[in-house]
Design brief:
Elements lengths: L7 H8 L2 H12 L14 E4 L4 E4 L7 E2 L14 H13 L6 H8 L3 H15 L14 E9 L8 H9 L8 E8 L4 E6 L4 H11 L5 E5 L12 E5 L13 H17 L2 E2 L1 H16 L6 H12 L6 H5 L7 H5 L6 E2 L3 H9 L3 H8 L18 H10 L3
Parallel strand pairs: 4-7, 7-8
Antiparallel strand pairs: 1-2, 2-3, 4-5, 5-6, 9-10
Helix pairs in contact: 1-3, 3-5, 3-10, 4-5, 4-15, 5-9, 5-10, 8-9
The structure holds zinc ion.
The site of zinc ion has 7 residues, from loops.
């Protein structure tokens, strides 16, 4: 068996063996030998019987597993399922819903939702590559609205927002910045004001870069820092390279993913969906499925996400203050999702999932289900990049 699966079928077969799973992750996480994630020492021994290592240094919590210190930490779900979930999320063009993951991997919908949230954290761009643009690069900048109607918003929030003059019609605003031929950056912002847009552009785009944007640019342009090209959408022709076709293509992928695959996107979670779509967009061809999966594997190591962080309930976090759109809950139940729910082996799980991520994930029974290979393959072929 090839040690490096390149297709979903190879991945399913290869990761069915727990030893393969462990060795695969160990080789990528610790290419120079296993080290203790708590103290960095390489004086560790493997305890075969317990499938974990023990550090010889004299600190607390000397034992650790392959999951310790990664987004999988504390999860009772097996590596086989984690790795397949990563494969699907890395490679399905429009994303994959928790209902689909639940059915494909034999876990509850709530568990699948939690796994996906953690994997999306792994997909986040650390922006270690510096800013985009510069060196003659051309950057398209555009905003898009995602989400539902003001009537779904809590009355107080709606009134306050109207009072503060940043009513966005109940929708969340995403600002996208795409360097032509290269990568996209996208962030959720409070509104389309100059105060909201300018700092994000400054943080992401090199000074002096040539910017392409629509007429809204007149409201936030920074002529001393960037050179600007304004697209007049009302005119019926494309004026040479003055267009925003690149970022509009990204928006259509993002909206297709959110509208067609996910049941609901709350603003707090929206930024993670945006990150997920940006990950696939930035790692598109010539990368193949195996390449994208291996790249994601590298990224998940060293990141950890607790349930409280995932749901925004961690002490001190006030989603309303951060995004000002927290009461917005956008529900887009599509035919695609309905099929998944009605075919689900557990209607109860699907119903529980609809209530949202308010409770602790149920994991006690969710590790017993089996991977549903035929369904997984159908899903993957339907959703291929
Ligand atoms: Zn140690």
């Amino acid at each position: 068996m090839a040690a490096d699966p390149r297709t979903l079928q190879e991945a399913v077969l290869f990761f069915a063996d727990p030893v393969n799973c462990r060795e695969y992750v160990v080789a990528r996480r610790w290419p120079n030998g296993v080290i203790c994630p708590r103290c960095g020492s390489d004086r560790v021994s493997f305890l075969e019987k317990y499938n974990r290592w023990q550090c010889h240094a004299g600190h607390k919590d000397r034992q650790f597993t392959i999951k310790t210190g990664t987004v999988m930490e504390d999860s009772p779900i097996g590596l086989d399922k984690w790795l397949l979930a990563m494969w699907l999320l890395a490679n399905c063009k429009n994303g994959v819903s928790s209902y689909e993951i639940a059915r494909a991997l034999g876990v509850t919908q709530k568990t699948a939702w939690f796994m996906l949230g953690r994997i999306r954290l792994g997909m986040q761009d650390e922006k270690t590559g510096g800013k985009i643009g510069g060196g003659g690069g051309e950057v398209e900048i555009d905003e898009t609205f995602i989400g539902g109607k003001a009537r779904n918003m809590h009355k107080d929030v709606k009134e306050r927002r109207q009072r503060e003059g940043r009513n966005t019609g109940g929708k969340a605003v995403v600002l996208g910045m795409l360097e032509r031929g290269k990568t996209v950056r996208a962030e959720v912002i409070v509104d389309r004001s100059k105060e909201s847009i300018q700092p994000v552009v400054r943080a992401n785009v090199e000074r002096r870069t040539e910017i392409f944007a629509d007429e809204h640019l007149y409201n936030w342009r920074m002529p001393n820092e960037y050179s600007h090209n304004v697209i007049k959408h009302l005119e019926a022709y494309v004026d040479g390279n003055v267009h925003t076709n690149g970022i509009e293509n990204f928006w259509s992928l993002l909206k297709r993913g959110i509208g067609g695959t996910y049941v609901s996107v709350e603003p707090f979670h929206l930024l993670r969906y945006v990150d997920e779509q940006a990950f696939r967009f930035n790692n598109r061809k010539p990368m193949d499925d195996g390449d994208r999966f291996r790249y994601l594997m590298r990224k998940i190591v060293g990141k950890r996400l607790t349930y409280a962080q995932l749901t925004g309930k961690e002490a001190g976090y006030q989603p309303e203050e951060n995004l000002a759109v927290s009461s917005l809950i956008w529900t887009a139940v599509t035919s695609n999702t309905r099929t998944s729910i009605s075919n689900s082996t557990s209607r109860k799980d699907a119903a529980a999932g609809r209530k949202g991520p308010s409770a602790t994930p149920t994991t006690s029974t969710s590790t017993k289900g089996l991977v549903n290979l035929p369904y997984l393959q159908t899903l993957a072929s339907k959703l291929a990049v």
